[in-house]
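Technical annex, item 7. During the second reporting period the consortium partners agreed on a shared format for inverse folding records so that results from different sites could be compared directly. Each record opens with the tokenized structure and is followed by the designed sequence. A conforming record, contributed by the partner at site C, is shown below for reference.
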């Protein structure tokens, strides 16, 4: 399945959503990952997940799938979600009157 583009519904969530395979995401015209607000999934909130996805050198596609999007994604993060990122990734550009911050061109900084 590593080379198959798949889009499937995720109906057990409320509201329902979709899930895309890595090939489908990487073939997209644009991939935007938004991390805003509080998460019950991670003890330290979304900041730990964003750190792992964006900059943890130990994470791979197999250990943390979101790490596989580093070269193609743009990230929209609020202060909380960006809290665990290193200085390399905290040269922020405020968007929308400072409501959230964007990490643009992450791929060019790798």
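Designed sequence (site C submission):
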């Amino acid at each position: 399945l590593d080379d198959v583009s798949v889009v499937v519904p995720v109906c057990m969530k409320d509201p329902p959503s979709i899930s895309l395979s890595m090939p489908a995401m990487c073939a997209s015209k644009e991939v935007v990952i938004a991390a805003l607000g509080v998460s019950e999934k991670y003890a330290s909130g979304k900041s730990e997940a964003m750190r792992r996805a964006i900059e943890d050198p130990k994470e791979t596609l197999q250990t943390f799938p979101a790490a596989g999007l580093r070269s193609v994604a743009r990230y929209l993060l609020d202060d909380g979600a960006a809290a665990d990122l290193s200085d390399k990734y905290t040269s922020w550009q405020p968007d929308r009157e400072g409501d959230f911050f964007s990490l643009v061109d992450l791929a060019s900084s790798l």
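Strands lie at 7-10, 17-20, 31-35, 73-77, 93-95, 100-103. DSSP finds four helices and six strands in the chain. All partners now use this format for quarterly exchanges.
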